Amino acid sequence: MAIEGLRNAVEVKDGFVTVKDKNAVRTMMDGLIYNAVFEPDDEKRKALFILIKEIAKACGAVPSSIQGLYEEMGRNYPGFTVPAMNIRGLTYDAAKAVFRKALEMKAGAMIFEIARSEIGYTKQRPLEYATVVLAAAVKEGYEGPVFIQGDHFQLVRKNYLGDPAAETNYVRGLITEAIEAEFYNIDIDSSTLVDLDKPTVKEQQGPNFEKTAELAAHVRQVQPSGINVSIGGEIGEIGSKNSNPEELKAYLDGFNETFKGTKGLSKLSVQTGTSHGGVVLPDGSLAKVKIDFDTLRVLSDMARKEYGLSGCVQHGASTLPDEAFHMFPQTGTSEVHLATGFQNIIYDSSHLPRGFRNEVYDFIKKEYAKEKKENQTEEQFIYSTRKKGFGPIKKQWWDLPSDVKGPIMKELEDKFGLLFSELKVGNTVDIVKKTVKPVAVKKEVKSGLLGI
Predict the structure, then answer these.
(1) Who's near 362: CB < 8 A, 6+ residues apart?
(2) Residues 392, 370: Cα–Cα separation, whole Å
(3) In sequence order, which residues have a C-beta less than 8 Å from that of residue 394 and are 6 or more positions away?
(4) 26 exposure class (CB count in 10 Å sphere: 0-12, 13-18, 19+)
(5) Which has the closest alpha carbon to 59: 143, 145, 2, 148?
(6) Best CATH choice for the domain 64-345+403-425 from the list 3.20.20.70, 1.10.340.30, 3.40.50.1820, 3.10.129.10
(7) Quick one: DSSP state of residue 200?
(8) Do 233 and 307 form a contact (C-beta atoms < 8 A)?
(9) What pTM value is reported for the model?
(10) pLDDT, tens digit, 9 for 90 and up, residues 198-227
(11) CA distance 88 to 396
(12) Alpha-carbon distance 79 to 29, whole Å?
């Protein structure tokens, strides 16, 4: 058990952690995080996660809010777009690949995120996700702020219409859980409540900005002392019509009138023609996406100049062609969300054994057969559903041999490098250091339970 070797490298005194030997901790981290993720006892697993997070903070990898950087962006756009990366599977290995590339390129402005829906189907609760990312930082020797984000903390329209209080309370609880797990960046998505049947744009956006303001107030109530969580809002549900200046103004004016806290939103997600995961054709290939970069430019400029936000956020971008990404910094986009493209690299890699891939696909076809739509080909069904192949058989993914995972991670690392380059986040360590002052929130470690 990896935990036993920690006794010489880590001291736990009065519930708090001191690291005596960083190199020894780095050497043990692969085994330590594996044991934590697959520990069958809930209490012990939670205690292990907290221990690892405290070790990470003691090693200099500190969960942080990107608020300070985004406030600087609102004053003076620095010419780069922050990548926000949703890691659905092989999370520890993929996060290590991100940190390796970040260290090589001196990138500090990057976000690890997971959406409400992904928390469910990848079976990664916030505490696990945050811990795995921080463990990867320790393993690779990354020190500095680590930005972990709740993506699309969304009010599901059908649930909300059925029982508004229950759905609101669910999201409120998820926010509390995430902030306790040290997600200090939260994207509230109540764009699902926009009512286009109302006569004016302000009335259409009303349910959206009112609910965002209510949930933002909850964020401010539960955030730790000394930390201002970065909060994002959203005006157009991804996959529907493109956003426009009138909607942005109606939403932000309405939010500012409704929200009673001191710090409001730091950014705003808009719709510009993409969809999550891309549009899959009958043969399983992806349709080309035409993204409206003019909308991004106009709305980001307006969000900064008139409201002091960092700019606008682009969702559903990871399946765009590589040559499109340089446009995000050119249009002043503050953040871009990337998910399915990383999943596709893993599944489509020639290094993933065909037998294992087929095993995952057979599992999907059996477990999620009811989700197959009448007009879907099998290729379309597999493409749209294979994101659900990571969670239930997580251990089989983690147990893939290093000669399989290594080459796949090299492919991912190359992709991260391309994105960091095109989004201009190389050499952002200094601006992050200047604008973000990490606050290490101490969590008590139950040393007796862990035997150290």
Answers:
(1) none
(2) 17
(3) 37, 89, 122, 123
(4) middle
(5) 143
(6) 3.20.20.70
(7) S
(8) no
(9) 0.95
(10) 999 999 999 999 999 999 999 999 999 999
(11) 14
(12) 36
For 358, counting Cβ atoms within 10 Å of its Cβ (0-12 exposed, 13-18 middle, 19+ buried), the class is: exposed
DSSP-assigned beta bridge partners for residue 395 = none
Q: How many Å apart are CA 391 and CA 401, to the nearest integer?
A: 18
**Token pair belonging to 452:** 């150290």
Residue with tokens 């965002």: 212
Note the helical H segments in 259-401.
Answer: 293-307, 327-330, 340-348, 354-367, 378-385, 394-398
How far apart are the C-alpha atoms of 301 and 312, rounded to whole Å? 8
Tell me how far the alpha carbon of residue 70 is from its chain's centroid.
16
**Distance between CA atoms of residues 11 and 14, nearest Å:** 10
- Residue 221 contacts by C-beta under 8 Å, 6 or more apart in sequence? none
- In 397-406, which positions are buried (b, 16+ CB within 10 angstroms) versus exposed (e)? bbebeeeebe
| Closest to 212 (Cα-Cα) out of 195, 188, 229 | 188
The DSSP call for residue 366 is: H
Residue (of 91, 97, 90) closest to 140 by Cα position: 97
Task: Report yes or no: 57 and 445 within 8 Å, Cβ to Cβ.
Answer: no
The pLDDT of residue 276 is 46
- Domain regions of the chain by residue span: 2-59, 64-345+403-425
Count CA within 13 A, CB hemisphere, residue 419: 29
Q: Look at residue 50 in the predicted model and tell me its pLDDT.
A: 96
- Identity of the residue numbered 100: R
Q: How many contiguous H segments (helices) and E segments (strands) does the chain have? A: 20, 11
Do the bridges between strand 16-19 and strand 10-13 make them parallel or antiparallel, or are there none, so unpaired? antiparallel
Question: Could you tell me if 402 and 92 are in contact, meaning their C-beta atoms sit under 8 angstroms apart?
Answer: no
Query: What pLDDT is recorded for position 416?
Result: 98
Tokens 């945050």, residue?
A: 130
pLDDT, tens digit, 9 for 90 and up, residues 262-291: 899 999 999 886 554 455 556 655 556 667
Question: Residues in the chain, how many?
Answer: 452
Give the integer Cα–Cα distance in Å for 270 and 242.
8
Residues of the chain with pLDDT under 70: 1-3, 237-240, 273-290, 447-452
Q: What are phi and psi of 388, to 5 degrees?
A: -85, 5
Dihedral sign computed on CA atoms, order 27, 45, 228, 214: positive
